Amino acid sequence: MSRMPLVEPEALPPYLKAIHDATPEDNWLGRHFARAFGPAPDLIQAYQGFYYPWHTGAGGAGLLEPRLKELIRLRIATLNGCVLCKSVRMAPEVVSEDEAARGVDAPDAEGFTARERAAIRFAEKMAMDHHNIGDEDVAAMRKLFNDAEFLELAMMAGQYIGFGRVLAMLQLEVASCPV
After folding, report:
1. What is the value of pTM for the model shown?
2. What 3-state DSSP class applies to 91?
3. Of all helices (H) and strands (E), which one includes residue 155?
4. Residues 30, 87: contact at Cβ < 8 Å?
5. Of 13, 41, 135, 170, which has the fewest beta carbons less than 10 angstroms from its beta carbon?
6. Is the C-alpha dihedral spanning 47, 48, 49, 55 positive or negative?
7. How far apart are the C-alpha atoms of 101 and 74, rounded to whole Å?
8. At what angle do helices 14-22 and 41-56 cross, to 10 degrees?
């Protein structure tokens, strides 16, 4: 059960009402996400205004390819135990259903590039052991990513980790694999 009061759908502001109404009725999580953020519609609209362009590369935002960001988003969703994040397909044209469902959780067993494997592993360490990311980890990443790409990767991983944990803290879903 949500830790936040859920605004009744008819009382939602237009932006959140559109999200709520576009979510299938059997998707408790997605519909309640919109309702939980009812008291702060500007917050979630501004957040999504930042998030989507950087995640998808829309409008030229970001240096990293959307596929790489989607792979780390999905891996972090597993580590955070975020069912909503794991079930949403934000880039189905660049990450197959099989990769989204299973591949990111075993990057060595799939056909990932060296950059993708490194990004997934780095995202794992950010999510599970960030205090032990050392100079050698950063140096290894900088061999595959230029400095601006590495900073974008680290920022996006941090954002995915943080928002997934906000959803878990609000109890908008049941964590299946908490870190």
Report:
1. 0.85
2. coil
3. helix 147-169
4. no
5. 135
6. positive
7. 8
8. 60
